[in-house]
Design goal:
Layout lengths: L1 H25 L10 H10 L1 H23 L2 H9 L1 H12 L6 H19 L11 H22 L6 H27 L11 H23 L2 H24 L6 H21 L11
């Protein structure tokens, strides 16, 4: 459990560092075109910063998978929510963004919520999951993500609106992938569950979220887009942990209330982080 949370913490750092690198590269690459996905992906990877960011994100994803195999999905996602702290510090210190009092207040509130969640965590029992719940949750979240992507393609939609829709879509689809990966880490099927429809689910979600996230980074405000993507992904995965894997919300009435309030703090803090930020220097 402890090792899993340490891996999740390292993954949170790598994920947000990768996001910032990818944003720097995405804005320098040609605009993503839905009708030319291969060309768009090639253009993105020709951008040195995007390639570096993708490699860092891939390594962080490997740590994430390791964390999912050792700790509960909800606990891992809560630690990843703390990546907002890394995001704020890295963005201001190394990427030329300035965060105001509102953003730092959001980071502090988020951190406080995470501390409460960590202190009220319950010991993880035997791993169990519901296939029916998995199908229902994965299908519902996948439909929401694809629907948001579809809405973002409407003509006349302002760039910021498109970015917010795509960031949310990318986040919930990352959450779909996380739930599927958690299920696979405990599968006993062929090749440890890799030959499974949930592998395909994870891949489809990952591909759509790849383009949605990259496009949102091109047209949106960096910190706002990254924060919304992170929060949407974490909430979707935490919901999956509770509904699919039966992970407890808390232990006892006091523990449940404390955790629910802490989740509200995390969401409220995350809502304060996004703001119209501008880089103080050109990348």
């Amino acid at each position: 459990m402890i090792l899993g949370l340490i891996l999740a913490l390292a993954s949170a750092l790598g994920t947000n560092l990768g996001f910032l690198f990818k944003q720097r590269g995405a804005v320098l690459a040609p605009a993503i075109r839905v009708r030319h996905p291969v060309r768009s992906a090639a253009d993105l990877f020709r951008s040195r910063w995007f390639l570096v960011g993708w490699i860092v994100s891939f390594l962080a994803w490997g740590l994430h998978v390791g964390a999912l195999s050792l700790a509960s999905l909800s606990s891992v996602q809560v630690v990843l929510s703390g990546g907002l702290v890394f995001l704020a510090v890295l963005a201001e210190r190394f990427f030329g963004f300035h965060l105001g009092r509102r953003q730092w207040a959001g980071v502090t509130i988020t951190a406080a919520g995470l501390v409460v969640i960590g202190l009220t965590a319950t010991a993880e029992g035997p791993q169990r999951s519901s296939l029916a719940a998995l199908i229902a949750v994965e299908s519902a979240i996948l439909v929401v993500g694809v629907g948001l992507v579809r809405i973002s393609t409407r003509h006349g939609l302002p760039d910021r609106g498109e970015a917010l829709l795509l960031a949310t879509a990318a986040g919930v689809l990352f959450g779909v992938s996380d739930v599927a990966m958690k299920y696979l880490t405990h599968s006993e099927g062929p090749l440890f569950g890799l030959l499974s429809p949930w592998t395909l689910t994870a891949l489809v979600s990952f591909v759509i979220s790849f383009y949605a996230s990259a496009r949102s980074l091109q047209v949106g405000l960096a910190i706002e887009v990254i924060a919304i993507t992170s929060v949407a992904a974490n909430l979707a995965a935490i919901l999956g942990g509770v509904l699919v894997f039966g992970e407890p919300i808390g232990s006892g009435a006091l523990g449940i209330i404390a955790r629910l309030l802490a989740f509200c703090l995390v969401i409220a803090g995350a809502a304060l982080v996004p703001a119209p930020l501008r880089a103080t220097s050109t990348p």
